[in-house]
Amino acid sequence: MNAAMDKMGGAHSGRSNANAASAAASPVITVEDLWLTFPGRRAEEPIHVLENVQFSVRPGEFVCIVGPSGCGKTTLLNVLGGFVKQTRGTAVVEGEAVQGPHPSRIFVFQENGVFPWLTVEDNIGFGLLNRPKAHREKQVRHYTEMVGLSGFEKAYPRELSGGMRQRVEIARALAAEAHVLYMDEPFGALDFLTRLKMRADLVRIWQQEGRTILFVTHDIEEAVQLADRVLVMSKRPATIKEEVIVDLPRPRNLDDARYLSVRDRIFSIMGMDAQGGTTGKSH
Ligand SMILES: Nc1ncnc2c1ncn2[C@@H]1O[C@H](COP(=O)(O)OP(=O)(O)OP(=O)(O)O)[C@@H](O)[C@H]1O
């Protein structure tokens, strides 16, 4: 067991009973000694993106990944989703080494994930086309309501706001019974108020559903608002520099001194202050 894994073990102490139960279960995601280099095109040098990345995620956990722009956050999700093959190391999801995309692991991207030619209900039911009609309809009704889109079932994406389109994507992922949701800056294109609302709604939905979420964001405040645990990546070639447990009750109060303290700790790990300035040191 390496130092990063050791830290994870130590971090479990003092967590709630529910989290303690989750901690006892086998991890749903295990990444060990993961390296990835993209070959250089023509005369370009190869790009070393990931270096000795290791972490694990327990069932039902909400884990955020933050790190400097371009460090490899999306690439890491792409490896876990089976879209990109690592150069070395292992990525195991639900007990199986990742070999390629899998229907029970679903991506929610920043935008343009919904099918513009399908209505809201057909988008949400898309992952259930091979299931009996009655089951599909029940799931679609349930998740349409859960994400607050009742009344918009027959609307097309062009008739919806950006936040509503993201709700369709989230509902589609949940309806398809994805065990693991990979979310890559899903709220990055939304305005500030919509983003705040979407975060609160996502936490509520996650609490009801108990799915495992791995969520990439640039936004440290967003990570601290959402996550059980934040993995802080270093600059490229990226590794997990540190992981920070966010042991705060939900919904989280953004003025709470404990929230601000966790947030500032992550800024400090990244060598920044909360105003976006650099501190000149990172640990
Ligand atoms: N398919 C690819 N081929 C070659 N290089 C790639 C490929 N995909 C990503 N890269 C490079 O890998 C590095 C990491 O990219 P990635 O998109 O994973 O970073 P990121 O941390 O998600 O960035 P951001 O925070 O800006 O979204 C970048 O230098 C990028 O140019």
Describe the structure.
The protein is an alpha/beta fold and 283 residues long. It has a domain at 29-104 and 178-270: Rossmann fold (3-Layer(aba) Sandwich), CATH 3.40.50.300. Helices cover 34% and strands 21% of the residues. The chain contains 9 helices and 10 strands. A 6-stranded mixed β-sheet has the order 6-7-8-3-9-10, with helices on both faces. Strands 2-1-4-5 form a 4-stranded antiparallel β-sheet, sandwiched between helices. Helix 5 packs across helix 6 and helix 8 (220-226) crosses helix 9 (257-269). The longest helix is centred in the C-terminal third of the chain and has 18 residues, at 192-209. The model is unreliable at 1-17 (pLDDT under 50). The site of adenosine-5'-triphosphate (ATP) has 12 residues, from strand 2 and helix 3.
Task: Compose a concise summary of this entry.
This protein has helices spanning 3-11, 17-24, 73-80, 120-124, 133-146, 162-175, 192-209, 220-226, 257-269, and strands at 29-38, 47-57, 62-66, 88-93, 96-97, 105-108, 180-184, 212-216, 229-233, 240-245.
Query: Nearest-angstrom radius of gyration?
Result: 19 Å
Main pleated sheet: 6 strands, mixed
Q: Which geometry do the CA atoms define?
A: globular
- In which order are the strands of the major sheet placed? 6-7-8-3-9-10
Q: Portion of residues in helices? A: 25-40%
Q: Which compounds are bound in this model?
A: adenosine-5'-triphosphate
Instruction: Give me the oligomer status.
Output: single chain
SS class: alpha/beta
Let me know the average pLDDT. Answer: 87
**Strand share of the residues?**
15-25%
CATH C-level class of the domain at 29-104 and 178-270: Alpha Beta
Work out the number of β strands.
10
* Low-pLDDT sequence parts: 1-17
What's the helix count?
9
| CATH architectural label of the domain at 29-104 and 178-270 | 3-Layer(aba) Sandwich
Protein name: NitT/TauT family transport system ATP-binding protein
Domain ABC transporter: 29-260
GO molecular function, one term: ATP binding
InterPro entries: AAA+_ATPase, ABC_transporter-like_ATP-bd, ABC_transporter-like_CS, ABC_transporter_ATP-bind, P-loop_NTPase
